[in-house]
Design a protein that fits this description.
With about 525 residues, the chain is an all-alpha fold. Among the domains are: about 190 residues, MFS general substrate transporter like domains (Growth Hormone, Chain: A); about 55 residues. Helix 2 runs parallel beside helix 6, helix 11 runs antiparallel to helix 15 and helix 11 packs antiparallel against helix 18.
Length: about 525
C-alpha cells in the first residue's frame, strides 16, 4: 500500500516546509565556528567556554535524537516539528541576545544546548513526515531533495556566517528567526498528514541512551583539549559505551521501549547504519578540516573558506538527485556502493593535490568527493528508514541520526589527533632544519600544533611558509584517512546489501511491527 496520504496535502509543499524546518539545524552545525573569534573577543569567553559554544549544540543534538524520534511517533510528527521549530527559534533568539559580563558564557552555552534539543525533536519528525507523504517508489527522489538542499545549507553556513559576522556575530543566530517563520507558515498551509501511535514514554531508556551517547561524545570532544593520555577521556568513553550496552539489554525487556532493538535484525537497516556510521567519520569532519586548511595553508579569509566548501556541495547536491533516482529505479545497493567508491577516489586525489597549495589543482577532486557523498548519503538514509514500519519512521530516523552524530564526533576526535600529531612531527623537522635544537623544536612544535586554528585569517604573509606546508601535509594525511573510511564503507555496502528494489510491506505486517512484534526475519 502507498504511504502517501490519500486525500491530502500537496506533497512538495510539505517537502518545502520540512526543508525549511530542518535547514536551521544544518546551518547551525557550521555557521557558529566562523564567528567564534568575534564571540570570544566581545564576550571575553575562556577557551573552554568557546569550545562549548560549539560542542553544547552537537552534544545535546546527538544525545536526544532517539528520544525525539520516539516522541514524534507517539505524540505526532507535525506537533513535534512545530514544537521543535519554536524551541530552536526561541533558543536562537536568546543566543543572539546574550548579555555581556559574567553571565555571558553560561547563558550562551545553555541556549546552544537548548538549540540542540530543539533540533533533536524536530529532525526525526520532519523526515518521518516526508517519508509518510511519499510512496515508496517516490521517496528516493523526495529525500534526495530533502538531504541535498538541507545538506547544502551546511556549506552555506560558513559563507553566510562570514558575511553576517562583519555586521554582528549575533546575526548568525537571528537569521534562524525568518527561516522558522517561513517553516511554520508552510506547515500551516500544507497541513501534512501523518500517522502516529500513542504509547507510554520509556524514561528509563531515555536516561540510559542520553547518558551513554552524551558521555561518550563528551569524551571524544574533550580529547582535543585534555589529550588522549588523560584517563578521564577513556573513563568517559568507557562509561558511555557501558550505558549503551545496558540500554540495549534493558530495551529488550521493556514492554514499550524507547527503541525497538529488534529492528537491527533487519539486515538492510543494520548494514545501512554501519555504512552511514563509517561515512560520517569523514563527512562531517571534512567541513572542519577543509575550512582550517583553506584559512591556514591557502591563506583564505573566513568567507573565502566557505566558498571553498561550496565546491564540495556542487558535487553533493547534483549527485544526490541522481542517487535518489537510482534508488527509486533499482534499489539502494548500486548508488550506495558507487557513491562510497567515488568518495574514496575523490578524497584520495584531493589528498594527493593538497600539498600543491593551489586551489585550482584541487577543485575537481573536491567536487568528486562531494559527488560520492551525495550519491550514497541520501539512498543509504532513505533505505534504512524505509525498513521501518510506517508508524515507526521517527524512531528509525532517530536511530540513524544518533549513529551519524556519534560517528561524526568520533571522526572529529580521531582525525583531530591525526592532524595534530602529523603537524607536530612536520613542524619539529622544519624547526630543526632551521637550526633549532631538537628539544626546543619539539616544545615549539607542540605549542604551535595546538594553536593552529588561530593561525589563519586571510593573509598568507602572517603565516610562515614552512607552517603552511606542514599544515598541508598534515591535512593530506587526514584526507587519506577519509579515503580509507569511504573505501571501507564501500566494502561493507558491497558485501552486506542485496540488489533490487524494496517491496512495500503489507499493512498488516506493518501494524504487527509497530505493535512490538519485532521485525522477524524481514
Amino acid at each position: 500500500m502507498s504511504t502517501a496520504p490519500a486525500g491530502g496535502s500537496p506533497r512538495y509543499l510539505v517537502l518545502a516546509a520540512m526543508i525549511f524546518a530542518v535547514s536551521m539545524t544544518f546551518i547551525d552545525q557550521t555557521i557558529v565556528s566562523i564567528a567564534v573569534p568575534n564571540i570570544q573577543h566581545e564576550l571575553d569567553l575562556t577557551s573552554t567556554g568557546v569550545q562549548w559554544v560549539v560542542n553544547a549544540y552537537l552534544l545535546t543534538l546527538a544525545a536526544f535524537f532517539a528520544f525525539g524520534g520516539r516522541l514524534a511517533d507517539t505524540v505526532g510528527h507535525r506537533t513535534m516539528v512545530v514544537l521543535g521549530v519554536l524551541v530552536f527559534a526561541g533558543a536562537s533568539a536568546c543566543c543572539g541576545f546574550t548579555p555581556t559580563g559574567s553571565l555571558a558564557e553560561a547563558w550562551l552555552i545553555a541556549f546552544r544546548a537548548v538549540q540542540g534539543v530543539g533540533g533533536a525533536i524536530m529532525f526525526p519528525a520532519a523526515l518521518a513526515i516526508v517519508v509518510q507523504n511519499f510512496a515508496l517508489r517516490e521517496r528516493g527522489r523526495a529525500l534526495a531533495l530533502f538531504f541535498g538542499i538541507a545538506g547544502g545549507l551546511t556549506a552555506i553556513g560558513p559563507v553566510l556566517g562570514g558575511y553576517l559576522t562583519e555586521w554582528t556575530w549575533r546575526a548568525i543566530f537571528w537569521v534562524n528567526l525568518p527561516v522558522a517563520a517561513i517553516a511554520l507558515v508552510l506547515i500551516a498551509i500544507s497541513k501534512p498528514v501523518t500517522q502516529s501511535r500513542p504509547a507510554t514514554m520509556d524514561y528509563r531508556g531515555l536516561v540510559l541512551i542520553a547518558g551513554g551517547v552524551g558521555l561518550s561524545v563528551f569524551g571524544f570532544q574533550q580529547s582535543q583539549v585534555w589529550g588522549w593520555s588523560n584517563p578521564a577521556i577513556g573513563l568517559c568513553i568507557a562509561a558511555g559505551v557501558l550505558l549503551l550496552v545496558v540500554f540495549a539489554v534493558v530495551e529488550k525487556r521493556t514492554a514499550s521501549p524507547l527503541i525497538q532493538v529488534d529492528i537491527f535484525r533487519i539486515r538492510a537497516f543494520s548494514v545501512q547504519n554501519v555504512v552511514l556510521g563509517i561515512s560520517m567519520l569523514a563527512f562531517v569532519p571534512v567541513f572542519f578540516f577543509s575550512s582550517e586548511y583553506a584559512q591556514i595553508a591557502l591563506g583564505d579569509s573566513s568567507s573565502e573558506a566557505g566558498v571553498f566548501l561550496l565546491y564540495f556541495f556542487i558535487g553533493f547536491v547534483i549527485a544526490s538527485q541522481l542517487g535518489g533516482r537510482m534508488l527509486d529505479r533499482g534499489g539502494a545497493k548500486r548508488p550506495v556502493v558507487l557513491g562510497c567508491v567515488l568518495a574514496a577516489v575523490g578524497f584520495y586525489l584531493w589528498a594527493g593535490d593538497a600539498t600543491t597549495l593551489s586551489f585550482s589543482e584541487q577543485q575537481w577532486d573536491i567536487v568528486l568527493a562531494g559527488a560520492g557523498m551525495g550519491f550514497m548519503l541520501s539512498p543509504a538514509s532513505t533505505d534504512a528508514v524505509n525498513r521501518a514500519s510506517r508508524l515507526s519512521y521517527g524512531e528509525a530516523t532517530g536511530i540513524t541520526q544518533t549513529v551519524r552524530n556519534y560517528a561524526a564526533s568520533l571522526g572529529l576526535a580521531v582525525l583531530g589527533t591525526v592532524l595534530v600529531t602529523d603537524l607536530r612531527s612536520g613542524l619539529t623537522d622544519s624547526l630543526v632544519a632551521q637550526g633549532l635544537p631538537q628539544d626546543q623544536a619539539e616544545s615549539t612544535a607542540a605549542h604551535l600544533s595546538q594553536v593552529q586554528a588561530q593561525s589563519g585569517g586571510g593573509s598568507t604573509s602572517a603565516i610562515p611558509d614552512f607552517f603552511r606546508v606542514d599544515f598541508a601535509h598534515a591535512t593530506q594525511t587526514v584526507l587519506y584517512w577519509m579515503a580509507a573510511f569511504m573505501a571501507a564503507a564501500a566494502v561493507v555496502a558491497m558485501v552486506g546489501l542485496r540488489p533490487g528494489v524494496q517491496a512495500e510491506a503489507p499493512a498488516e505486517e506493518e501494524e504487527s511491527l509497530s505493535a512490538g512484534g519485532g521485525p522477524g526475519q524481514a
